[in-house]
Structure formats: structure tokens, C-alpha cells
């Protein structure tokens, strides 16, 4: 009988792979997720998926994951996912989260364009804060080695996605 693969806890691998600010920020984000009843679930080597009501919210990946994620040693990222939505952050529904300009500025700086990796090829046209972007990856927002401000924005975006999933479930 084959041995069962180890599915390590995010926080354990963070402590093994990251140091200093990267480690503190990743652990802070993991604590935020757990406090909001979002449990990181092991997806593959050094990669965890965060879902709400069986819908993906984001991924956390650490160096040592698949090479195509382009994570150098000691680095990590939060990859916000989008499956089929075309208006990702909009002023009407998300006003309480985007009232500060920093979130919009950081979100717009971290838009991930399609790299033709087969998941979303050739990318999607999406609207983010009333701006149209073409050829955007299904992992539409990639926050690599987020600092405190970027991490704060990532938390707001996770809260928006969780709220949108709950709202969609009610309709």
C-alpha cells in the first residue's frame, strides 16, 4: 500500500522556508485567514488553497513550489483567483473596502497578465476599479512578498471575495 503524502500545515512550512519580514507577514496572513474561518488547505508542494463555501478565494505559495510560479528562495506570494467574473473590484458593491485609495493603488500595481500557461489562455478582459484590463490571468492579482500595506490590502480583498461568495449563495 503506498504511503500517504504528507500535507503540512502552512505555518510549519512558513517557519522552515521564510525568514524575517517575509515570515512575519506570511504568519500574520495565515492567522488572519484562520480568524476569519478560512483554513488554508494543502494543494501541492509549498502551495495552499483558501476556499469559502467550496469556491476558491486565493492561493498562498512559498518558494519550493512549482518552478513556473517564479518564486526565488525565501519568497512567497498571495495569488487571488478569478473564475468567470469580469468586474472584480467595483465601487458600487465594494465601497466599504475600497474607500481608501491605497487598496486601489496596490491592486492596480499587482494585476497579473496572462502568461499563456494554459489555465486561462489567452486571458480575460476584466474591470478593476472601473478600469478595463485585457488579457488578465485567472490569478488576476499576484502579491509577491507583500509588505504591511500590501498585506492589509490582501486581507480586504479576501474579505470582499468571501462576502461576494456568501452573497452569491443567497441568490
Q: How many distinct beta strands? A: 8
Residues in helices, as a percent range? 25-40%
- The rounded distance between the terminal residues' Cα atoms is 45 Å
Which descriptor suits the 3D outline?
globular
Q: Mind telling me the C-alpha Rg?
A: 16 Å
Tell me the major beta sheet: 8 strands, mixed
Q: Which secondary-structure class do the elements indicate?
A: alpha+beta
Count of domains: 1
Q: Please work out how many helical segments DSSP would assign.
A: 5
Q: Average pLDDT across residues? A: 81
Low-confidence blocks of residues: none
Write the H/E string, N to C.
HHEEEEEHHEEEH
Query: What is the percentage of strand-forming residues?
Result: 25-35%
Amino acid at each position: 500500500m503506498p504511503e500517504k503524502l504528507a500535507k503540512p500545515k502552512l505555518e510549519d512550512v512558513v517557519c522552515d522556508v521564510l525568514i524575517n519580514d517575509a515570515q512575519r507577514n506570511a504568519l500574520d496572513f495565515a492567522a488572519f485567514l484562520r480568524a476569519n474561518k478560512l483554513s488554508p488547505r494543502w494543494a501541492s508542494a509549498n502551495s495552499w488553497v483558501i476556499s469559502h463555501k467550496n469556491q476558491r478565494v486565493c492561493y498562498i505559495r512559498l518558494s519550493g513550489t512549482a518552478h513556473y510560479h517564479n518564486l526565488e528562495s525565501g519568497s512567497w506570494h498571495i495569488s487571488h483567483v478569478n473564475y468567470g467574473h469580469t468586474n472584480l473590484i467595483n465601487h458600487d458593491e465594494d465601497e466599504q473596502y475600497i474607500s481608501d485609495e491605497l487598496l486601489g493603488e496596490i491592486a492596480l500595481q499587482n494585476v497579473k497578465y496572462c502568461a499563456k500557461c494554459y489555465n486561462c489562455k489567452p486571458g480575460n478582459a476584466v474591470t478593476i476599479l472601473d478600469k478595463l484590463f485585457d488579457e488578465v490571468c485567472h490569478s488576476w492579482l499576484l502579491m509577491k512578498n507583500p509588505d504591511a500595506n500590501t498585506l492589509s490590502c490582501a486581507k480586504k480583498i479576501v474579505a470582499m471575495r468571501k462576502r461576494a461568495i456568501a452573497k452569491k449563495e443567497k441568490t
